């Protein structure tokens, strides 16, 4: 009999998740899978199963709704994430945040590094930490490396809000939550953030709540 800590092979676990159909359940803060570095993807899934898993991650992201989902967020410790952002927000906010449409894409074994000294600080939330937002200072531009779902190499510079999404989702694959990087005094419920801190930048929140921006 397997020990309680044992898990079936990843392919079997993913097949079980997909069998239910529809969006996958998102695990929330406190689940150990969110605090452990995910395994590099090295062909643990057949091409057909990988395609089905990626499609399920996309369905889950849309249903949440969110602009990115990493495999650990559905309980699967693999270095795979999906991103997509239609950026359907007011033009003033989009311009201030560098938020431009990000077409659907898959990141496999991604990593990033700063591509310049600039930092950008904005309110950020997470599907695995529901109900809250906090200000996070992140690199304004990053160099993204990794592969796509077909194994093609990625090596590109990403800026603005897409860079924030890349950093957030890649952090998930390293066992890091956005709260680890957030300004604690900025922490707000979604309701408070919408009512009080919906300005294009968090400047007003910083003054009122008493924290510094980069």
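-> sequence recovered:
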């Amino acid at each position: 009999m397997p020990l309680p800590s044992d898990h079936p092979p990843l392919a079997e676990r993913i097949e079980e998740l997909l069998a239910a159909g529809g969006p996958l359940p998102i695990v929330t803060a406190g689940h150990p899978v969110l605090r452990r570095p995910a395994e590099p993807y090295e062909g643990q899934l057949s091409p057909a199963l990988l395609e089905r898993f990626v499609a399920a991650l996309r369905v889950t992201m849309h249903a949440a709704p969110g602009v990115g989902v990493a495999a650990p967020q559905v309980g699967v410790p693999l270095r795979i994430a999906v991103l997509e952002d239609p950026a359907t927000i007011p033009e003033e906010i989009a311009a201030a945040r560098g938020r431009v449409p990000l077409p659907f894409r898959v990141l496999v074994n991604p990593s990033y590094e700063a591509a310049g000294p600039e930092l950008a600080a904005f309110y950020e939330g997470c599907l695995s930490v529901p109900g809250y937002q906090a200000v996070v200072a992140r690199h304004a531009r990053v160099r993204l490396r990794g592969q796509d779902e077909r194994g093609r190499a990625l090596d590109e510079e990403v800026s603005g809000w897409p860079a924030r999404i890349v950093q957030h989702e890649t952090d998930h694959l390293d066992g890091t939550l956005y709260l680890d990087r957030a300004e604690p005094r900025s922490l707000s419920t979604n309701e408070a953030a919408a009512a009080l801190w919906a300005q294009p930048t968090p400047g007003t929140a910083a003054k009122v709540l008493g924290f510094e921006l980069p």
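DSSP finds six helices and eight strands in the chain.
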